[in-house]
Specification:
Elements: H1 7-11, H2 28-42, E1 46-52, H3 62-73, H4 75-80, H5 92-105, E2 114-121, E3 126-129
Parallel strand pairs: 1-2
Antiparallel strand pairs: 2-3
């Protein structure tokens, strides 16, 4: 989701080479619907999950997010997000490993689909494999 990152430029891919699914924190659980559509309807054979350094998801908790909603939007809005998991994470590499494990263990992702996890280093522009 980070506007500082151009996936095509960062990964050296051309338009049409990949389905790019973006969301806050590069959450596999949040992207599952799109991944299933990409795989089942469009034939995707590989999932490359990439999180990045300096991610805002490292900076807050669910309680922090809910409190901010209440402060900025009021009690009614706060009640609406009461049970919502904003999917923050305190450890970048562990979050990559957890999301890759989630996808590999999912019954809706074919076992033939290759799933890997990476970290894009915003500071250097380099991508490194975690799993």
């Amino acid at each position: 989701m980070d506007a500082r990152i151009d996936p095509a430029a960062a990964l050296g891919i051309s338009l049409g080479d990949a389905h790019v699914i973006r969301n806050a924190g590069a959450s596999a659980a949040d992207a599952l619907r799109s991944i299933v559509i990409s795989q089942q309807l469009l034939g995707t054979q590989e999932v490359v999950l990439i999180k990045h350094t300096g991610c805002g998801m490292l900076t807050f908790t669910n309680d922090d997010a809910r409190a901010l909603v209440e402060k900025n939007l009021g009690g009614e809005a706060a009640r609406e997000v009461e049970g919502l998991d904003f999917l923050p994470f305190p450890d970048l590499e562990e979050a990559v490993r957890r999301d890759v494990r989630f996808l590999r263990e999912s019954k809706v992702i074919s076992k033939e689909v290759v799933v890997s996890g990476w970290v894009y280093e915003v500071e250097s522009g380099k991508v490194r494999q975690v799993v």
